[in-house]
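User: structure tokens for this one?
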Amino acid sequence: MEKSKLKISICGYDFSVVTDEDRQYMLSIANRVERKVNKMLENNGRLSTASAALFAAMDYCDQVQKASGDEDNLRSQIKDYLEESGNARKQLEESKKEIDRLKREITALRRRLAAEEVSKAPASDAEPATEKAPAVPTKKKNKEKKENAPIPGFFSEDAFAESADATAEILSFFEQKSFEDEDE
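Assistant:
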């Protein structure tokens, strides 16, 4: 924009202003200052026009200073929110990687368990070996397990099946949660 010269009148004083701002904008600023000075003169009749103009200038400077402080505060808050958001995204990605790793581990353990079951099963030509899913324990089985509890430090097949089922449930929960998060 090119500079233009404007004549402005505030409280009976005429000014020439050279600016690259829009004419209407500058006139609205001059009207605002004039209203502020006139309001101060009405509230305190002992003030001179020059004193009222100085107080008006101080009031506007105070408003600008406070607005600048508020702006800095908002910038700081936004920066903090962005950092928190970045950390949350990083944690989400790490969680997804851990879920994938656990899925692979579960699959490998299930294959190993199935292979062990096949190798322990008697070989018969009449019935081909099939992969068995780990059994879900019932109350009766739980009672039997307590009575026949394995020696601490040894890992039984039943305990392995229970931990695999629990891990599968946990993974299912996290998969569902991650899909919900992606939909949002």
